[in-house]
Amino acid sequence: MHTYNKIIVIEVSTICNLACPFCAHDSRLKVPRFTIDLEVLRAFTRAVGEFSSAKNESVLVSWLGGEPLLSKTVLSLTEELRSNHPLYFSATTNGTRLSDRAIRDHIKHFYSELTVSVDGFPPFHDKMRGRAGLFEEIKDGVKLLVQEAPRLKIRINTVLMRNNFDFFQDLCMEVANWGVKEITFNQLGGRDRPEFYPYNRLSVEQANSIPSLVSRIQNAIKNTGAKLAFSESYFRRISASARGEKLPILNCKPGSYYLFVNAHGRISPCSFTTDEYGLNISSIQTTDAFEELQSVFRQRKALKQASWCHDCPSTNVHGKFS
Fold first, then answer.
1. Rounded to an integer, what distance in angstroms lies between the CA atom of residue 241 and that of residue 199?
2. What is d(CA 56, CA 306) in angstroms, rounded to the nearest whole number?
3. Domains, the chain, ranges and CATH?
4. Distance CA 250, CA 290 (A)
5. Neighbouring-strand partners of residue 237
6. Distances (CA, A) of 105 to 81, 139, 145
7. How does DSSP assign 40-106, residue by residue?
8. Residue 151 — very low, low, confident or very high, per pLDDT cuts 50/70/90?
9. Hey, is 9 helix, strand or coil?
10. Is the link from the previous residue into 133 a cis peptide, with omega within 30 of 0?
11. Is 35 helix (H, G, I), strand (E, B) or coil?
12. Dihedral (Cα; 205, 208, 209, 214), 10-degree rounding
């Protein structure tokens, strides 16, 4: 498995084609939609590519949305950057574009990883995502990608909620048999849709049973070639959330490994600290400016600790992929 010196997650747009009641990008919501400025993004990612070359550091650029595979400009930018710089690329997708052969060819030729969202079997997933037949669409698309791009790391990610928890083990067995290489999960969070959260969050009992559940799943899928990622740190985060207890992380070495860019073009150490630590990527046009980010974030953190740090929700900091 390839390891990266840095991971940069870039929210390219808040436009999505699905209607998920737990997500701020739900297509039914009457809210402003934003797409990152392409030329500013191009200049920034070129600087990242030049940094990767100059410092001989492995950098993964990961597109997020909304639905990032809806954007033709992002697809063309990926091809341009991959052809000219030693960058690696991934995306998190709702799977609605995987039936398109041109999209699969694009992924095959330019991506190292692809994360596909699957929250349950058809009755649950299709209802939760607002599209009939979506589970089967994803299943067919993933199986085709497994055949067409055997070196691609395909990951399935599930949002665990009260009503899909009991069939998570069966779901893992199902998607492992599709040929995916990794399975991950999030607990339902309450920031995006606070009206949905209280009635659908994991119970304390469910959260406490996760280590034994993970152990059973890992044993069940061990001969499929897939792995379920998990760590003790990640369990502590989930357990604390379920109990309503705070879990502070006051020194995460901001910007040293993980960076987040939102659809407004602001970069920060994670998606939760943009207001306190973020700055516009239009100011990052050179290798030196990019390399200086870690120092900038450290200084801003020293001046004012972000409120989220006192109950850090960042899955990356807590070892989701360990």
1. 15
2. 32
3. 6-311 (3.20.20.70)
4. 23
5. none
6. 17, 17, 9
7. HHHHHHHHHHHHHHHHT--EEEEEESS-GGG-HHHHHHHHHHHHHS--EEEEEE-STTTT-HHHHHH
8. very high
9. strand
10. no
11. strand
12. 150
The answer, yes or no, to whether residue 1 has pLDDT greater than 90, is no
Q: Which amino acid is at 218?
A: Q
Torsion angle of C-alpha atoms 105, 108, 114, 120, degrees rounded to 10:
60
For residue 6, give the 3-state DSSP assignment: strand
Give φ, ψ of 285 to 5 degrees. Answer: -115, -5
How much is the pLDDT for 2?
76
* Contact status, residue 65 vs residue 16, Cβ threshold 8 Å: yes
Q: Which residues of 72-81 are buried (b: 16+ CB within 10 A; e: fewer)?
A: eebbebbeeb
Type of residue at 156: I
Alpha carbon distances (Å) from 227 to 64, 148, 322: 23, 21, 11
User: Do residues 191 and 308 make contact, with C-beta atoms less than 8 angstroms apart?
Assistant: no
